[in-house]
Each structure stands twice: as C-alpha cells, then as structure tokens.
Amino acid sequence: MTDFTSLPDLAVRSFGGSVLAASDESFEEKENLINPWKPQFKPETFGAKGQEYDGWETARRRPDENGELGHDWAIVRLGLPGMIHGIVIDTAWFKGNFPPYASVEACAVPGYPSVAELAGADWTEIVPQSPLKGDAEHPFEVAVERRFTHVRLNMFPDGGIARLRVHGEVVPDPALLTGLTVDLAALENGARVTGCSNMFYSRPDNMLAPGLARNQAEGWETARRREPGNEWAIVELAAPGVVKLAEIDTTNLKFNAPAAASLSGIDARSASLDDEAAWSALLERTRLQPDCRHRFRLDDSPEVTHVRVDIYPCGGIARLRLLGDLTPAGEQALTARWQELA
Asked: Is the whole-model pTM more than 0.85?
C-alpha cells in the first residue's frame, strides 16, 4: 500500500461521508462502500438474494436492444472535502463476482447539491478505467491538485466492490472559520497529526475526528510503555491561531487512560519542531481521570502553528479539542489555500 493511505479517509462514514445514489444495488447496499471497518465475510450465509457480502454488489448486466452493456456507478459525498491524494478500491471477498475494471471521477460543488444537480456537474477523471482483481486492495495515486466535494465510482460492467477509500488533505472553506472561535485541532477544519511516538492500537488522527468516540478504537491508544519517558503526538493546526480552551477527552478509556497530560505550542514559521527550547507551555502537566472529558482554559497563549500533547506515561485519548481564534496570518493562509485549489 502506498504512502497516501496515512492521510485521512475523506469519504468514510464516521467522518460524515454518504453514498448519495447508485445505478443499482440489487444484491448489496451502496452504503457499505464507506463503512469504517474492514470488510467481513461469513461463508454460506445465504439470504433471499444469495450469498451475503459486506460491500456494494449490483445485478448482472445484459446488453440492451442496441447491444450496449453500460456500467454501474455510485456517487459519494465526501464528509471532509479536500484534495485527494489517492484512492483505494477494495474487492475483498468478491472472488467470482468482482468488476474487471473501475474508474473514479470527482467534482466540486458548493453548498448541498441534490443528486440531480450533481448529474450536471463538471466531473474530472482522477482514476482512469483500470483493471481490478478479485479479493484485493487496489491503490491508485491521484495527481489532480484541486479541492473536491464528491466522487463517482464507476465499475465496468457490474459486480461487487467492498470498500472505497478516498485519502487526502482536508481543505476547509475559510468562510466558515474566519472571524469565529473554532476548533483549531479539528480534522474537518484541516488540522492533522504530523508525528507521534506510538500508535500501536490506533492512529492519533482519531483524536481530531468529528463527534464523540463511541469506543476505544475510535481514539488514539498507545502500547503499554515499559521504558522511562512518555508518549506524545504533534498536531498541525488548521492554520496559525491562538488556543483559548483545551479539551482532553478520555471517554471509554477506563483502565488505560493516561495519568496526566500536558500541552505545548510552537510557531513553526520561525522555529524548528526539533528545537525543544522553542516550545511554549500551554498547559502544564495536569492529572487526568479515566473516562472523563477534561476542559482547561488557556490564558495568555501565544500564536502557534503546532501543538504537542504529551501523555504520561502512556495510554489513550478519545478526543482532543483546541478551541481558539485564527490570527490574521491564519486567515490569510486558509484563504490562499482555498483559492489555490479552487
């Protein structure tokens, strides 16, 4: 699997993605395409429509009166609009009923368009028609540097696809963030984790996900630390800003929450992330409780581009929220990024 899979899945259901429409879903529902879990399979589980699959499966196509076979498609609204770096088309468990070819298109439509409005959108091919194998993950790098809001998966001519993963960078609309107090660490606002000491059980980007964590797997959790020291993660904020309120949420972590945590910040435009002396304390080492939302007001915080959360000595965090204001430089950076990828 290529490096782009380390980026967030912009289409996954748990990040707000939705499969709006499909040409056919006779055997299995289109919504399965963006389920967050890995495709599952139980042999000899036959329903009224045949063997049950954890994916999207269409009926067998037959030529029409003109001899045309056509193809099936599904339209997905990205939960996190942004620049797509790569696509994964997964045909897991589809061994005799997978499509031999697939392609992907993308478009950018403002607001909340209907399926009918999307039909007339300006679609750009980001993955050309490519061969597929059965029961396999197929990664495709995307070189189009534009912001997209929707993708259309085409399969030729029919069959089953278990999952569609759309990995990329979130590019938020600056009109929704400028002039407001916002979560500078939210994945949906363009923040992301750029480094961490340990992600044995789950990735630290999970801390920045929308909504509340429903279980331990939906947060960041490290292995049990046996050596001296502590675990940490570095968050690149949505844009330069001033953090005024921090929330460290250990919900669902009843026996593996950290004993304590601290926050520090840095302006990476003028200092290196490796320069320990350049980091400023935002929240001194503070005791945490398990299965608890902790909120801390941060007074007199400096303008920062990155925040490091240190947990002592190890454990997990369900969600990290850093509420604050964009600085003028932050607003300019967001606007410039938006215009560059429009």
From this structure: yes
Number of H helices and number of E strands within the chain? 2, 21
Distance separating alpha carbons of residues 130 and 114, to the nearest angstrom: 28
Please name the helix (run of DSSP H) or strand (run of DSSP E) that holds residue 328, with its range, or none. Answer: helix 328-341
Q: Where are the domains of the chain?
A: 3-170, 174-329
Please tell me the CATH superfamily of domain 3-170, with its number: Galactose-binding domain-like (2.60.120.260)
- How far lies 159's CA from each of 22, 100, 119, 175, in Å? 13, 8, 23, 41
Q: Is 273 helix (H, G, I), strand (E, B) or coil?
A: coil
Please, are residues 306 and 234 in contact by the beta-carbon 8 Å criterion?
Answer: yes
Alpha helices in 216-327 (DSSP H): none
Report the amino acid identity of residue 275.
D
Place of tokens 């050309």: 128
174-329 CATH: 2.60.120.260
Instruction: Judge if 3-170 and 174-329 fold alike in CATH terms.
Output: yes
Report the distance separating Cα 90 and Cα 94, nearest Å. 9
Each residue's pLDDT tens digit, 227-285: 999 999 999 999 999 999 999 999 999 999 999 999 999 999 999 999 999 999 999 99
Residue-wise pLDDT tens digits, 58-99: 999 998 888 888 999 999 999 999 999 999 999 999 999 999
> With 0-12 CB in 10 A as exposed, 13-18 as middle and 19+ as buried, what is 199?
middle
